[in-house]
């Protein structure tokens, strides 16, 4: 079953109110007896929590704000925000980053963005899976093109992480910070992560896809599959959480601005911001490189975005990839 079959019913149920089987059957063009079968598949395939009550009908356990390109454009226009040259809303996709990488090969312009309602194989750093329940979070990928080679993109993930963290602080999540290179934490629990995938010729041109996974509303059942402490924006902001499409508009505008600045100045424009957002600054940390462990004091980043670890009076740079950072406390 395609998501469009699911979506017909989900768009009605999105308000969180009860709707009768007759109403859902009419919207989907199916018999009333087929409604529950479809809802059952929606529950099984998308993990959506749907309640059924005799005499009242069906409802979602909580309201959903479906992603809508028109609403995002309206928010951007009303707030004077930059828009993407191309914006795609994907219903179900294996990975928004993979989809955008494929589109890059077809010539889609730099700054193009896709948003997904649901990912079946969302990716995090170091091959981890990003848990991607339907309709509650934000899964965003933006394409960035440059005439330079991939080597010039080393600090892009840090600039992107800082950009997202600033958007969230401006929205009211004041304690959000960054764990090198680009995990966003709130009170030591993970709120968002970024994955930047790069391809191109050694001497240029090259392209990167900046992928963001941001927890907006995550149920306990979905969160049980996450292998580290986590938090969602709803817990942080409560009733002050901005609408999902408005937040998407703000993130798109901020990431487009970041890309323009990075093209001109590289990571230099974000070195000072890193000091403000760095959650491990001047703390004792452990760097994991496979089975190897390095202990020292975290002293920020260098011009390429490498983590600087103070050991025995000297500074050792560590680059991303297979490197992982942990507190030594």
How would you describe this protein?
By secondary structure, this protein is of the alpha+beta class. It folds into 3 domains: 3-60, Arc Repressor Mutant, subunit A (Orthogonal Bundle), CATH 1.10.10; 69-275, BirA Bifunctional Protein, domain 2 (2-Layer Sandwich); 280-327, Roll (SH3 type barrels). It is 33% helix and 28% strand. It has 10 helices and 14 strands. The strands form 3 sheets. It has a 7-stranded mixed beta sheet with strand order 3-4-5-9-8-7-6, sandwiched between helices. The longest helix has 22 residues, at 244-265. It starts with a helix and ends with a strand.
The count of β-strands is 14
Structural class: alpha+beta
Low confidence ranges: none
CATH architecture of the largest domain: 2-Layer Sandwich
Helical run tally: 10
Q: How many structural domains does the protein architecture include?
A: 3
Report the span from N to C terminus.
49 Å
- Globally, the shape reads globular
Under CATH, the homologous superfamily of the largest domain reads: Bira Bifunctional Protein, Domain 2
Which percent band covers the strand fraction? 25-35%
Task: Spell the H/E element sequence.
Answer: HHHEEHEHEEHEEEEHHHHEEEEE
User: Class of the largest domain, according to the CATH hierarchy?
Assistant: Alpha Beta
Could you tell me the mean pLDDT? 89
Which fold does the CATH topology of the largest domain refer to?
BirA Bifunctional Protein, domain 2
Describe the largest sheet.
7 strands, mixed
Q: What strand order characterises the main sheet?
A: 3-4-5-9-8-7-6
Q: Helix share of residues?
A: 25-40%
Oligomer: single chain
Supply Rg. Answer: 21 Å
């Amino acid at each position: 079953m395609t998501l469009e079959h699911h979506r017909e019913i989900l768009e009605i149920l999105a308000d969180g109110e009860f709707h009768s089987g007759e109403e859902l059957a009419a919207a989907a063009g199916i018999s009333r007896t087929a409604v529950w079968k479809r809802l059952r598949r929606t529950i099984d395939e998308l993990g959506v929590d749907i309640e059924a009550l005799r005499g009242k009908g069906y409802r979602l356990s909580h309201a959903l704000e479906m992603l809508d390109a028109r609403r995002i454009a309206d928010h951007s226009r009303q707030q004077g925000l930059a828009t993407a040259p191309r914006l795609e809303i994907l219903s179900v996709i294996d990975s928004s980053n993979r989809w955008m990488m494929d589109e890059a090969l077809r010539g889609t312009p730099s700054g193009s963005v896709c948003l997904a309602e649901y990912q079946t194989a969302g990716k995090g750093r170091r091959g981890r899976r990003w848990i991607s329940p339907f309709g509650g979070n934000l899964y965003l990928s933006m394409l960035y093109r440059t005439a330079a080679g991939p080597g010039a993109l080393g600090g892009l993930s840090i600039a992107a992480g800082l950009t997202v963290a600033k958007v969230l602080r401006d929205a009211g999540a004041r304690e959000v910070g960054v764990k090198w290179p680009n995990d966003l934490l709130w009170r030591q629990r993970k709120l968002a992560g970024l994955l930047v995938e790069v391809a191109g010729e050694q001497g240029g041109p090259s392209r990167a896809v900046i992928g963001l996974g941001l927890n907006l509303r995550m149920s306990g059942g979905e969160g049980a599959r996450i292998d580290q402490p986590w938090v969602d924006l709803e817990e942080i902001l409560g009733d002050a959480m901005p609408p999902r499409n408005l937040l998407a508009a703000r993130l798109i505008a901020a990431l487009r601005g970041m890309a323009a600045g990075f093209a001109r100045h590289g990571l230099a424009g974000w070195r000072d911001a890193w000091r403000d957002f760095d959650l491990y600054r001047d703390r004792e940390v452990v760097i994991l490189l496979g089975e190897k462990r390095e202990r020292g004091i975290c002293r920020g980043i260098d011009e390429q975005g490498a983590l600087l670890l103070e050991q025995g009076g000297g500074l050792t740079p560590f680059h991303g990839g297979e490197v992982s950072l942990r507190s030594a406390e």
